[in-house]
What does this fold into?
Amino acid sequence: MTTDSRFDLPGTPVFDGQTSRRGFRMNKLFMSLRYAQNRERFLADEAGYCDEFGLAPEQKRAILDRDWQAMIDLGGSIFYVYKLAMMDGRSMQYLGGVFSGMTEEEFVAAMRAGGRRDG
Amino acid sequence: MAEVIWGLATSHVPSIGAAMDRGKTEDPNWKGLFDGYAPARAWLAEHKPDVAIVIYNDHANGIDLDIVPTFGIGTAERYQVADEGFGKRPVPDVVGDPDLSLHLLEQLVDEGFDLTVFQELDVDHGFTVPLSVWTPDPGEAWPCPVIPLLVNVIQYPQPTAARCYALGQALGRAIAAYPEDVKVAILGTGGMSHQLAGARAGFINPDFDAMFLEAIEKDPAKLTALSREDYIREAGSEGIEMIMWLIMRGAMNDQVTKVHSHYFVPASNTAAAIALFDNREPEPA
It folds into this structure.
């Protein structure tokens, strides 16, 4: 029997226990990027670094391709995924644009106009 | 007897700290936010506590997903400022108050709030940005010792709003039971509406935020009646962190006096607010 605690809210990923289980190894990799020496090792051999953390193949592919949506879909927590984005020099506004189908400039403009609304 | 003298609710968006650290507070995109802080900061500068409690959540800096404590409290003498991956913020490390921490822990456990104990903890922007909102130029040290009280708001199921408020009420009783004659400040952090991931990223709900800002002062029970789902739907998947304001509010008197509040959109991807409340009995006219 599975426990489905998640409710369905369109366009809103809920980082629940099952999602966190799925993304556990990948989120550990992201957490490790807080340290400069790990960032250097990651950049020197991204695929090898992913293998050290025992990621699922699709998680490794998402990281190598910088497929931010896939990282979220495969169990990434936005706060952890953001560690990789920061390393790449990407902002949270850039990610917001990726998730909502806009350029970073369009996303920033939408926020400055008061933010996005439902519907 | 210890006494809560004020409560400050504030967003803890990392870019607010970055704007201060990089001297951008007069930038046209930021000025409206920081101008809104000025009246609160002026009042706070005149009302210095002996110790503060900051209610916050970590963001993959001090703790990871190996262990996800629903509630936790720091009991250390010092807390280092975390390196979140781009170097430490140029702000002082934090001096703690282990005696008060351990008193609160015991009292809260006796009341049924089984907090996780952090004997070592690096504090991230969730903690240091509220301190900077309060004290923009701390110099070598923050104004007083500070105790971290941690809340899981990033992994579902977060504690309910009602449970947060009840924890705050127990915290208020625990503070009142502390035998030292100290003045205590409480900072409730996070919010307001925002969502970082998903097709709804960038979601802001000014109507909900306005309702919350009003009710946190006058009718917190209205906010405790909202479910986890209500918060995520109305305030966004990260906006649920506003439940931490309820811990602050619970620790305060039923009647508080609003000193100042301010609402601003956007601080990066977030609606930002501060609300400052005086917890002392009003002076007789």
In short: Strands of chain B lie at 3-10, 51-56, 71-74, 78-79, 94-95, 116-118, 146-151, 183-189, 257-267, 270-278. The two ends of chain B are 26 Å apart (CA to CA). Chain B has a mean pLDDT of 97. The domain at 3-183+236-253 of chain B is CATH 3.40.830.10 (Protocatechuate 4,5-dioxygenase; Chain B).
